[in-house]
Amino acid sequence: MTTILIICGAGASSTFLASRMRALATSRGIPLTIQAASDDELDARLPSTDVLLVGAHLAGDFDSIVERAASSGVPAYLLPDTVFGPGGAEAAFALATGPAPIGHSASNN
After folding, report:
1. Cα separation of 94 and 12, whole Å?
2. Domain enclosing residue 35, as ranges
3. Does the CA dihedral 83-6-38-74 come out positive or negative?
4. Using CA atoms, how far apart are residues 6 and 34, in angstroms rounded to an integer?
5. CATH number of the CATH domain containing 54
6. pTM
7. Are the C-beta atoms of residues 106 and 77 closer than 8 Å to each other?
8. Sheet harboring 51-54: ordered strands across?
9. Above 60 in pLDDT, residue 17?
10. For the chain, how many structural domains are there in total?
């Protein structure tokens, strides 16, 4: 089963997004594990992560996060700030489950 990890500053925004994405996965019959965490938890969570989604407010640290994720073989994607609003779970879901190179930004899709 694929595990998607969403990180943000404190873990609150990512928790809400993860919940909405889990609902989408369930409604589509797609077996995914979608988890949320703060950026402080990233290194501990990477070994069990297949795809990393990074909150837009961490854009200043994105290059460093990509390097950390790459060392574990995990592709990382920068989420646009709109994913935390209505309909954002759909965009985040598409980003996490679609093809894109590591370090790719959602705004570049």
Report:
1. 21
2. 2-108
3. negative
4. 8
5. 3.40.50.2300
6. 0.86
7. yes
8. 32-38, 2-8, 51-54, 76-78
9. yes
10. 1
